[in-house]
Amino acid sequence: xxxxxxxxxxxxxxxxxxxxxxxxxxxxxxxxxxxxxxxxxxxxxxxxxxxxxxxxxxxxxxxxxxxxxxxxxxxxxxxxxxxxxxxxxxxxxxxxxxxxxxxxxxxxxxxxxxxxxxxxxxxxxxxxxxxxxxxxxxxxxxxxxxxxxxxxxxxxxxxxxxxxxxxxxxxxxxxxxxxxxxxxxxxxxxxxxxxxxxxxxxxxxxxxxxxxxxxxxxxxxxxxxxxxxxxxxxxxxxxxxxxxxxxxxxxxxxxxxxxxxxxxx
Length: 265
Fold this sequence. Notes:
- The chain has 12 helices and 10 strands.
- It has helices at 38-53, 85-89, 94-99, 116-123, 139-142, 150-158, 160-169, 175-181, 193-205, 209-224, 227-242, 245-256, and strands spanning 14-19, 22-27, 59-64, 69-71, 105-109, 112-114, 126-130, 134-136, 173-174, 186-188.
- The protein has 2 domains: 14-205, 2-enoyl-CoA Hydratase, Chain A, domain 1; 209-256, Orthogonal Bundle (Lyase 2-enoyl-coa Hydratase, Chain  A, domain 2).
- α6 (150-158) packs across α7 (160-169) and α10 packs antiparallel against α11.
- It has a 6-stranded mixed beta sheet with strand order 1-2-3-5-7-10, with helices on both faces. A 4-stranded mixed beta sheet has the order 4-6-8-9.
- The radius of gyration is 19 Å and the shape is globular.
- α1 links the parallel β2 (22-27) and β3 (59-64).
- The longest helix has 16 residues, at 38-53.
- With 265 residues, it is an alpha/beta fold.
């Protein structure tokens, strides 16, 4: 697959635009609150696979079309189309696809962020919310729970008690509470949302990509390792990045008092 041209996705419900090194993905089903269909999930799998292989893409921004919703999760009306619960269990899940992305991903969260939509947002590395955004894990109200990382993401970000409140009531919290709980990094006005997310993406895109991707891998490892193991792993990754050509370029540029140029080498 070409690394210079965004792949054809086979659906208009997911849009992808490459601007320099920043790939912006838009869930484009606003009339249905950007609820994800199997076709949309397949498109996200294709996009993340392509972005991982691309030498051009350095950062991804994910958002939802319209002002009403970032994403309302899976389209509930299509869940009964799976032949068996086992088929549902083994589907290609959009959260899994996004979690497989090695490159940093920033969520620009507008409006309702519900169920799988909340899992989608929490899968992202950095989350910027519009002041109109709202968040909920409402699956419990319908008789099931989330399956795309809901519990672990909420517990790590918001703490066990706040996670329990969301998971066991299914009730909604607003953007300011999400900010106070650590679910999002910033809250901005809706008209500034996408530009702010892309501003952060553009900054990250100027950094040496191997170091950025390694920092992401290191953060993920820190979730699962003991403190001593995490520090040892970080030291090993530091050694790997220090040995890259980009790191040598960074040291030269610092000594020469100029801006560095990084080539992912």
